[in-house]
């Protein structure tokens, strides 16, 4: 048996914080001891492989049970309104999955392991809960498309408010009360089997009990058995496939409390030909790395946009899951757990590198991936991608990958510059950022800050379907291309190091420094001021104004950890 005094000392504060995220006011104090007693009871039923995840799950379940027993929250804050919605969710499992994902930040795999839900059900359940809770907060129906953004914003704000709940100190009195309760908690005798039915022969009843017990264990627990396959076998199986289709859900973090969800049905036809049908299916994007082109079809508008990518090298075209999987090496992954997904036995592999974090569940028979979950690699906006419903090796229609607009579509062409970015591209990007921000440099010059600014700008565009909207959108996209080139310059390690941004709310045209970095191989820094003039500076003569240090390759402030991705529709 574990030493519960040690567990209380090590994880008590974490349990306390989890309870306060879900429960209002003083309700957490009454739930703390109950949560630890529930953990004490459940730990006797099954072995615990990860105490942090186990206690996070138990605390969340206890908090939701307590919430349902409380009177309806009377507060008017978004957090209180969301708590009122959570206590009315009919499915306890759905509410638990929502809280574990968006309040606690657990991955789909961790949630599946703790809740014993099937892995491929976690994402749909979480997304359905987001849609339901968002609409209820906004008090709109599912058919009211114009209110979707309002619902998303309200839900994101409510979740952010619950995450940032003020947690009072865990009192010593409550700790001692819980210690005493744990010491007096009974041990459950699992040695005595259930009494067999008198209507069955004793031997048959014993067999039934054993069969049921084994079946429950096999269904509810990830089995730590010798792996069904080696990682190298899966890598070899992937290398032999030339086509694949799968469903993708990509969550991109725009800021600490805003995310964007992209869903698509993806088909891949080698070499480098990708078709994405967005969900809802009103936009299709077709990539062809051979021709260095991308075709966007807006079916509901009858519009097509063909983008020609200048100087597009093979390594720069959009990498989809199949291309990423084909670049794996036999020693990149290690076996983890085994489980069952939709009746198929699968083996989990974990890939952990400096530039890549990925979990792959491969079919034990075909050796091919069935589910892939990854954190976006460096150089991308932070976030995560879940891919499932893989179909490998099926014939795909070549016509579906054609770089031609269908008959009747209005076609526009855009050239996109992918030449290596220069310092001048960075200077131009800073100027455009100030221009888009109303004459002031933005609070953050990273992908998170820029994505927040871009999201706000999209909301201010003229009404859809008007000529003004099309013109404004084209101008905004041109500006975004230049912003991207500025990020390209920072993200390339060969361009320099020690990147600093100091332009938060600085007026464009003033003489204050807003950016500096050390070019590769140089003994001096380059300092850019608000007039967009570049000047050299010795290391001991750098500006003394407050700045944020950017991490080259990610363009995120150093030390800023991504928050769990809350899907938006």
Detail the topology: elements first, then pairings:
Blueprint: H1 4-22, H2 27-45, H3 51-69, H4 78-86, H5 92-102, H6 108-115, H7 119-138, H8 148-163, H9 172-184, H10 202-220, H11 231-239, E1 243-255, E2 258-269, E3 273-278, E4 283-288, E5 293-298, E6 303-310, H12 321-326, E7 333-341, E8 344-353, E9 356-363, E10 369-375, E11 383-392, E12 410-417, H13 423-436, H14 447-459, H15 467-491, E13 496-501, E14 513-519, E15 525-529, E16 534-537, E17 548-551, E18 556-557
Parallel strand pairs: 6-12
Antiparallel strand pairs: 1-2, 1-11, 2-3, 3-4, 4-5, 5-6, 7-8, 8-9, 9-10, 10-11, 13-14, 13-17, 14-15, 15-16, 17-18
Helix pairs in contact: 1-2, 1-3, 1-9, 2-3, 2-9, 3-5, 4-8, 5-7, 7-8, 13-15, 14-15
**Strand tally, please?**
18
Low-confidence stretches: 189-226, 312-317, 553-569
Which of globular, elongated, flat, extended, rod-shaped describes the shape? globular
Cα-based radius of gyration, to the nearest Å: 27 Å
Instruction: Going across the biggest sheet, name each strand in turn.
Output: 7-8-9-10-11-1-2-3-4-5-6-12
What fraction of residues sit in β-strands?
A: 15-25%
Task: Offer a quick outline of the entry.
With 569 residues, this protein is α+β, with helices and mostly antiparallel strands. It has 15 helices and 18 strands.
């Amino acid at each position: 048996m574990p030493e519960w005094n040690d567990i209380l000392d090590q994880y008590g504060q974490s349990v306390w914080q989890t309870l306060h995220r879900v429960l209002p006011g003083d309700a957490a104090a009454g739930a703390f001891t109950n949560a630890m007693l529930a953990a004490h009871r459940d730990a006797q039923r099954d072995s615990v492989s990860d105490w942090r995840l186990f206690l996070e799950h138990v605390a969340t379940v206890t908090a939701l049970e307590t919430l349902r027993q409380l009177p309806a929250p009377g507060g008017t804050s978004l957090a209180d309104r969301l708590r009122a919605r959570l206590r009315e969710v009919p499915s306890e499992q759905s509410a638990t999955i929502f809280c574990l994902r968006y309040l606690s930040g657990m991955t789909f795999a961790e949630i599946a392991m703790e809740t014993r839900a099937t892995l491929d059900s976690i994402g749909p359940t979480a997304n359905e809960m987001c849609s339901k809770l968002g609409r209820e907060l906004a008090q709109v129906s599912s058919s009211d498309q114009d209110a979707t953004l309002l619902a998303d914003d309200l839900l994101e704000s409510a979740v952010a408010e619950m995450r940032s709940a003020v947690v009072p100190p865990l009192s010593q009195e409550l700790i001692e009360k819980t210690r005493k309760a744990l010491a007096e908690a009974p041990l459950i005798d699992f040695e005595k089997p259930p009494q067999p039915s008198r209507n069955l022969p004793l031997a048959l009843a014993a067999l039934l009990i054993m069969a049921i017990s084994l079946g429950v264990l096999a269904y509810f627990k990830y089995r730590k058995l010798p792996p069904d396959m080696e990682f190298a076998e899966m890598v070899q199986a992937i290398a032999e496939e030339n086509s694949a289709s799968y469903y993708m859900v990509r969550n991109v973090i725009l800021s600490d409390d805003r995310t964007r969800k992209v869903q698509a049905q993806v088909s891949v036809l080698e070499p480098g030909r990708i078709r994405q049908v967005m969900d809802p299916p009103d936009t299709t994007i077709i990539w062809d790395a051979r021709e260095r082109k991308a075709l966007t079809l807006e079916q509901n508008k009858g519009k097509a946009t063909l983008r020609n990518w200048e100087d597009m090298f093979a390594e720069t075209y959009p990498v989809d899951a199949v291309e990423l999987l084909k670049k794996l090496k036999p020693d990149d992954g290690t076996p983890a757990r085994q489980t069952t997904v939709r009746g198929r036995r699968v083996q989990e592999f974990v890939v952990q590198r400096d530039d890549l974090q990925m979990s792959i569940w491969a079919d034990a028979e075909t050796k091919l991936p069935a589910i892939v979950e990854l954190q976006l690699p460096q150089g991308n906006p932070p976030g995560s991608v879940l891919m499932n419903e893989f179909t490998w090796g099926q014939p795909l229609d070549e016509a579906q990958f054609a770089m031609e607009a269908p008959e009747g579509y209005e076609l526009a062409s855009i050239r996109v510059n992918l030449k290596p970015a220069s310092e001048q591209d960075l200077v131009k990007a800073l100027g455009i950022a100030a221009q888009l921000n109303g004459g002031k440099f933005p609070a953050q010059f990273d992908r998170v800050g820029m994505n927040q600014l871009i999201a706000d700008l999209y909301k201010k565009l003229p009404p859809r379907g008007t000529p003004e909207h099309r013109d404004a959108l084209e101008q905004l996209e041109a500006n975004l291309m230049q912003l991207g080139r500025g990020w390209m310059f920072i993200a390339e390690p060969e361009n320099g190091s020690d990147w600093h941004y100091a332009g938060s709310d600085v007026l464009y045209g003033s003489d204050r420094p807003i950016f500096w970095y050390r070019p590769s191989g140089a003994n001096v820094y380059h300092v850019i001021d608000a007039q967009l003039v570049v000047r050299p500076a010795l290391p001991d003569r750098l500006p003394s104004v407050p700045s944020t240090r950017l991490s080259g390759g990610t363009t995120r402030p150093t030390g800023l950890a991504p928050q769990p991705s809350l899907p938006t529709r």
